[in-house]
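hi support,

uploading two proteins for the ticket. first:
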Amino acid sequence: MKSVVPTLLAILPLALAQGGHNGGHHNGGWNGGGWYSEGWNKGGGSNGGGSNGVGSNGRNQGSGGNSQSCTSLTADEIRTSGNNSLFTRWRPYSHVNAPAGWLNDPCAPMYDPTRDEYHIFYQWHPQHINWGNISWGHATSKDMISWTDHGGWQDHEALALGPSGNGSYNGLGIFSGTGQPVNIHGQKDGTLLLFYTSVSWLPIGWSIPYHPGSETQSLAYSTDGGNTWQEYAGNPVISATTETAPMYWNITGFRDPFFEPSPHLDALLGQSEPHYYAVFGSGIEGVGPRIPLWSAPASDLTDWTFLGALWEPQANTSFGPLLSTGTYAFNFEVSGFFSLTDSKGDVHYYANMGTEGGNVSFHESNHWALWNEGVVSRGANGSAQFHPVAGGAGDWGNGYAITSFNDTKNNRRLQWVWAPEDLVGDGGLFSAKQQGFQGSLTIPRELFVHEADGLLNPNGTLENGNSVVTQHSDGTYSASTLGVMPARDVADGLRLGARYTKISKTTYTSNKILQQQAAASYEIRAVVLATTGPVGLVIGASSDGVEYTNIIYEPSNNTILVERLHSSTIVEFANVTVTGFFAPYTLAETGKAEAITMDVFVDGSLVEVFVNERFALSTRIYPSKLCSTGFGVYVGAGSSATFSNFEAWVGLANVWPERPANSSSPLVWDTAAATNNYTWWSGN
């Protein structure tokens, strides 16, 4: 995937930004005694990630105490600091990320049954803080909790694949792709096979003329567990391009192969032998985004045949209401196609896609990670055709470039998401060279068919496009949608060594800080039984009341808001409110809304929000104060809310035990000659 720093849209529609409150953000703030706090587990330490070897640039991994400074770091101090001087300040240590440098899309997650090992790759520009010369970094794990840089953590040591130089089929980039633990004949003999987009021409973008042959599709393989990689001698295995056979499309892009076997599609299409199926991100100029579908016999994964467009949405349209289902925009990238089985044994088909070019005022980027469920049938041309029946956002924040894989060890589907930074000052690069890196991956997420029975449909609230809804003869409804939650075993592993606290059922009538100083990483899980108005959590709160971030469920329009107006005193970091859609189900048994369970992970600047196992949101906060680690509950002005449970784990595990806390690398600026006079990439 070719990626750039997202364009930020600072204007939120008034109805969404206010949500019935004042000034575009919610009342009940720190002024006038709106907040109060209680001492809770102060003092005490923890073995949180990154606690060792952290230098003077600051990182708080203890679980409380009074040692955290409330002096604000300023933008001027950041700008005058040296490269890598703030490497640990906001860095996540409980997530998968590159040792240093620029990171974007997750690639080729897979489980290797021969060696009982998980692999994750990522788009990487080592020793740079911006996109360019895009390569693949590589990490491995036995349990997806503790990770090892494959090859080492210094400089380029974790590199798996890199461009071979201008003039060759992959000379200017190893764009995104996926992998399988098979050889090119589909056999599991310990070989690892990667399918990626090879790039020979830049720049590439959906809104500029497409140069024929820019993107082709290629294979690489390893027979030693990923220690070394070989390019397939017959690369590229797919050379289709704009206005040529077999697609004959005036394409806006053609990249990011996602390939898997599918016995269900084999049966639907009447295949005489098992096949693998690949989908790509693409689009047709002036028509709309596309997901081309290709297949190859499992016995020869170099022999790919174009079957047709899996799905043909029109440009800049939406499956349902824009707020709840998002926009398809003008081009797809990082597409995926997979099936899940529900509790009754029925198969559900899902497509995910990164949409490009959408200009939606309540979504801060013109990129958006969406999903659709669909009915798959055999079309007149003999290919599979996808007909959407539900949809939503795979990540309601700035999480993007979603990919997933079949974890055959645990019989589940896991998803990885790119969580970019959110820097707006200095052309989107404020603090980037001082931090020495950009980007992280989210916690692995488990996908499943989320099923709910015994529901009511007051005022058509179920008809928002997120679920497949069935009405029963007794007047109740069932709903199914794409479920998402942190992988349970990974979440459990992150909590090991953390300080745990639990508060039992309590009713709050105003905001309350429950721990004034925590750590740079923690998890909060809270269950709201009932509320009369906006309700949620507070994170990143400074003990002097200056900085705080509110995570709010707003019942007036069924939105989840991450309100960042006071997240940092440094305005060069993004402070727009992040908006996601979440509509609680109404239960027939009680006639009331279901309880709301919020599960929030904070790790350095990275924040992940999960709600009721069917909502996920990633975003960033960059507090200027080291003491901005407090957390508590949020209750809108004049409202009351009953929390049946509030749990916290302070000081999450460091998932990189073999890396030093400061794994930074010297930053390099590419020459004009190396970047075609900075037309291929910016060079930094």
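and the second one:
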Amino acid sequence: MGPTRKPNVCSRLSRRALGCFSRDAGVVQRTNLGILRALVCQESTKFKNVWTTHSRSPIAYERGRIYFDNYRRCVSSVASEPRKLYEMPKCSKSEKIEDALLWECPVKQSLAVLPRLISNSWAQGDILPNSSDYKSSLIALTAHNWLLRISATTGKILEKIYLAPYCKFRYLSWDTPQEVIAVKSAQNRGSAVARQAGIQQHVLLYLAVFRVLPFSLVGILEINKKIFGNVTDATLSHGILIVMYSSGLVRLYSFQTIAEQFMQQKLDLGCACRWGGTTGTVGEAPFGIPCNIKITDMPPLLFEVSSLENAFQIGGHPWHYIVTPNKKKQKGVFHICALKDNSLAKNGIQEMDCCSLESDWIYFHPDASGRIIHVGPNQVKVLKLTEIENNSSQHQISEDFVILANRENHKNENVLTVTASGRVVKKSFNLLDDDPEQETFKIVDYEDELDLLSVVAVTQIDAEGKAHLDFHCNEYGTLLKSIPLVESWDVTYSHEVYFDRDLVLHIEQKPNRVFSCYVYQMICDTGEEEETINRSC
């Protein structure tokens, strides 16, 4: 079944003005985004490079905000031309922000305010204590182990928590998006003196877990080699502790079970605490937060699998996982298996027929459809997971649609060489699928609000590369819009491209830590109209 014809923008605006839609929550928002999608994809709409800047420090982007100088300077990209929102005071190297996450108040908490205000019943836990808590905040981790909550609009520090003096925390991630964060320490390698003396460091790293807004401590967990064995890394995601080994083994444990079973003492931020003969306030310097979850015995194992380079993903409906068999010659081969019994799905071995320097990659579609995206140098496959007919317990993988690169179909090239005797010799060689002179896919992303797949394709033309960003229908794969990027694209540099509603942003890292940022804004091309007006005059 092909795509159905959608009403044009004028029709949608008229229907919105007349209130011709249901009273369901979110309908107006979806209507507005449908109008914006139609505007973005219409032929006359252009994306203009409105701003370019360069920096000696990394540049980050999040929800309409561009961050410079290790998150201390913030520029809004929402206006027609980027403008500075705030700039925090200069600080020492030990105070610099190393990692950050943007927090936005959940709708359910925002909606909880009105009835509480009317009834004047302020039950703890129902609403947030301060009005500023309902505005976006940047949760930042500093080099000297402070966790900060910073206003996303003014740069004012709203809250600060001192983590600990016994390790170096370095990474921030969402355990549960917008609800629970995990702060991960650097791995403990031990001092050079300790290594020379043969003293083993059993604690590999620490994970500090917090519920956000209002901040509350869940606990700090240590990953100990005496319990887990020769573990090389660990992380937390959606309440699951994921432990990885150099052999390629990946093991999953329930963090909630671990916390309930091995928490030595419940700690509350801002409360007095006595720990190891020392008394202090939890979350304040110099006391910090003691490690209060210490595993003394192997916790119950939920799941384990072996995969090349510990690559492991879970998704789909029902739950499936993607791994690469743990052999180097299997690189680029992906197995899609059912989580409940490890059975391989029908057509569950996915291998892209390509010869390239860079590996293809695969992941579950972020639109929660349960589909899978498999990206190679010259094609993007969107795969779907469906039940096998007459056998609801087994599933199969099939193609939903394929996006192909725009290139000539010539795998072999002939080169003529003339020898000293004048004889002409013809040599044939194969082109790589990611040969720079052919259009090659570099980045594939999903714009969830407009329901569009964005694909960056690059072609080397003479000495420089040229890139364009294509918008494809997420349902059928149809090409709806193509935007050329005016700046050259060097395939040896690191690149990030963001498509966010009416904004396209390209961040490039050049050699010697030079970062460039190119901002494109949507404009409606009125060139023909202006020419008509001029002629009429």
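thanks. also noticed: The chain is about 10% helix and 45% strand.
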